[in-house]
Amino acid sequence: MKKDILLLSAIFAFAFTTKAQDAKAEHSVKVIGTAEMEIVPDEIYMSVTLREYTNKEKKKFTIEELEKNLVNYIEKVTTTDKKDIKMDNMSAYVLSMKRKNKDEVISKSYDVKFKNAQQVYMLYSVMDSLGISKAFVSKYSHSKMDEYKKQIKINAIKAAREKANYLMEA
Question: Which of 91, 76, 98, 81 minimizes the C-alpha distance to 133?
């Protein structure tokens, strides 16, 4: 029994040492290719918040009025489809100046997708008249982003191939 264990351990030791001696040291060089592309976004997502308010003449503008005006403006003036206007959030809070007089203020947030920066500028220019309390660009993208990513990867591989070729010549 002792001889079998000794014999097995000798075979394992011999096998590991021969494997280590057979390994040849291979020389290799790694190359990394990079590529960049600048694109102009054709999808600009804007977050717009409407909030009910009362003007100096004590006229209250309801959220329904503000919403109707916003949607009409976006559809007609900026020529954006109604399907590109989506409600994101709605909230309400009670504003009390005096204990007897409580007033509820409702606000709604929308995500609007524009096709170019000119449409965004048009909305910014009329924020006050539409009752927009807050507006900002939340993200931007391009409709052909997947195609551009593929092209960038191809360009990076070509750049890596060029690097490998001139390193092999040296």
Answer: 91
